[in-house]
Amino acid sequence: MANETLDRKQATVGNIYCSLSQTLIQDIRPQLTFLSTFNIFLSITAFLGNVVILDALRNESSIRPPSKLFFRCLATTDICVGVIIGPLVVFHWISIMQDRWIYCRFLVAIVFVIGSILTQVSLLTSTAIGVDRLLALLLRLRYNREVTLKRVYAVLTAFWIISIIFGVMSSINFRAYLWFAYTVVTVCLVTALFTYTKIFRTLCHHQNQTLSAFRQMTPLTLARYRNAVSSALCVQLTMVVCYLPYAVAGVVSQVLQDPGEPATSSVFLMKVYTVTLVYLNSSLNPILYCWKIASVRDAVKARVKKVLCRFKFQIDSVSYD
Q1: φ, ψ of residue 260 in degrees (nearest 5)
Q2: Separation of alpha carbons 144 and 275, rounded Å
Q3: What does the alpha-carbon distance between residue 277 and residue 149 come to, in Å, rounded to a whole number?
């Protein structure tokens, strides 16, 4: 009896995703089929979109190297979501519809650990992009000397190491992991709020000509900086919109469902829909980059035109033969 109680307490994630009745499976089968198809589409768009963005950033010279490195890291995590997490989640849902519960629990464990790592790295990197924009505004001429590629690499390496450690911890001590996850989210939100508030207040001072230090900033430089801040803010807000429902769903599920009880249809569907919204973020980021960063947009257009021209040439060659 003690062992059974312990197992029920430790199977929180498995009970939410892999303890469903046959009646519930039949009820949610159409929605799981739709979400599986939709997530396959998201995986493809996340992969292709972010690969194109990485290629555009590689050839982009107007973005400072430290800022470019942050965006490349964010694009890399989005590619991992498309290549790894998306297909695993689809396989997990298929295992549910086919009553393969052993595969289901194995896939849930893998998805949760890898997904936690990528989520934490994305949140930390997105917050770091805002901090980088604030430092560029405050340090001005000292920015290139203080914010170096070596230091940015060290920061990103620390993000990955911390995220991997606590991602693995989620399968060992789930309660400790939850405390860490809530702490990371809170710190990121507070830091982002402070960062962008400080940026906009400083820009407002500059607009009113109250800070003489900013009178040296040319209109072109100021416009580029505002565009950079706008793009970083859009990425941050989009991530909040996509991730917040999942966090709320996690809290609500803890309130509505006992840790040892199987999931109800409402709790399960709430989870899968909010998970899909999280993965949607990886497909939206390339669109935001193209929308807010003109140089990246131009580079993407040039790359797409080149690929289309090559594809058309190959078709014409085959037709001619």
Answers
A1: -90, 0
A2: 39
A3: 33
* E strand or H helix that includes residue 278: helix 265-292
And the tokens for 101?
A: 């519960």
Dist. CA 293–CA 291, nearest whole Å: 6
Rounded Cα distance, 174 and 168, in Å: 10
- Which position has the token pair 């996509």? 242
Instruction: Collapse the DSSP code of 11 into the 3-class scheme (helix H, G, I; strand E, B; otherwise coil) and give the result.
Output: coil
**Residues 261-306: pLDDT tens digits?**
556 777 788 888 988 998 899 999 999 888 887 778 887 887 778 7
Radius of gyration of the chain (CA): 23
- Structure-model confidence comparison of residues 302 and 245, the more confident one: 245
Q: Are 127 and 191 in contact (CB under 8 A)?
A: yes
Task: Assign residue 100 a region (left: φ > 0; alpha: ψ between -120 and 50; beta: otherwise).
Answer: beta
Please classify residue 192 by burial: count the beta carbons closer than 10 Å to its beta carbon, then call 0-12 exposed, 13-18 middle and 19+ buried.
buried
Pairwise CA distance, residues 52 & 48, whole Å: 6
> How far is CA 142 from each of CA 50, 138, 206, rounded to the nearest angstrom?
31, 9, 19
C-alpha dihedral (37, 79, 278, 253), degrees to nearest 10:
90
Question: How far is residue 256 CA from its own chain's centroid?
Answer: 27
Residue 211 Rama label (left phi>0; alpha psi -120 to 50; beta): beta
**pTM score:** 0.82
Amino acid at 281: N
152 or 173: which leads in pLDDT:
152
Three-class SS state of 164: helix
CA 171, distance to chain mean position in Å, is: 21
